[in-house]
Amino acid sequence: MKSATQRKGLTPLQMAATLGHTPLVKWLLLKKASTGVKPDPYLIACSQGHQDTANVIWKMSKGFAIEYK
């Protein structure tokens, strides 16, 4: 079975990071979306100026707990 990246080009987490959709990023990460994909979702969010989204991705990738609201 092909991964989401192989089928569509970007994972849902990468797309949410691109758009700066922080609540969706939180939800995806709480559902165990992988941050170990290329291009890196954290770098995508940073490059698009979505600092809140980037901070959530960074915290979750380092094992910090986040609150989903």
From TrEMBL:
<feature type="repeat" description="ANK">
    <location>
        <begin position="8"/>
        <end position="40"/>
    </location>
</feature>
<dbReference type="InterPro" id="IPR036770">
    <property type="entry name" value="Ankyrin_rpt-contain_sf"/>
</dbReference>
<dbReference type="InterPro" id="IPR002110">
    <property type="entry name" value="Ankyrin_rpt"/>
</dbReference>
<dbReference type="Pfam" id="PF00023">
    <property type="entry name" value="Ank"/>
</dbReference>
<keyword id="KW-0040">ANK repeat</keyword>
<protein>
    <submittedName>
        <fullName>Uncharacterized protein</fullName>
    </submittedName>
</protein>
